[in-house]
Amino acid sequence: MATDSHILRIEYCTLCRWLLRAAWLAQEVLTTFDTDELTEVALVPSSGGIFRLTLDGEVIWDRKQEDRFPEAKEIKQRIRDRVAPERSLGHSDRQTDAPSNH
Prior knowledge:
Elements lengths: L6 E7 L5 H14 L7 E7 L4 E5 L2 E5 H4 L5 H12 L19
Parallel strand pairs: 1-2
Antiparallel strand pairs: 1-3, 3-4
């Protein structure tokens, strides 16, 4: 069991009406990570076209820098890489370089 607490903040623009997008992403993260991996997810109303995710104070996604919104898979991978690097995300994991047999 992890002993560190990890906090994800999802800051979103209320004027842009991005609450549903932020809440959906929060739900995706909360259903993926256990409480010993992620102890808090906070929705933070803002303005100015902000859609930014920070994990323990470190920016892991900024819509203005990335020039797009994140896919849930990308956010799950970035969180996992920081809080539980050995953890498998199942179908959300990155594809390996090995060719598929399908």
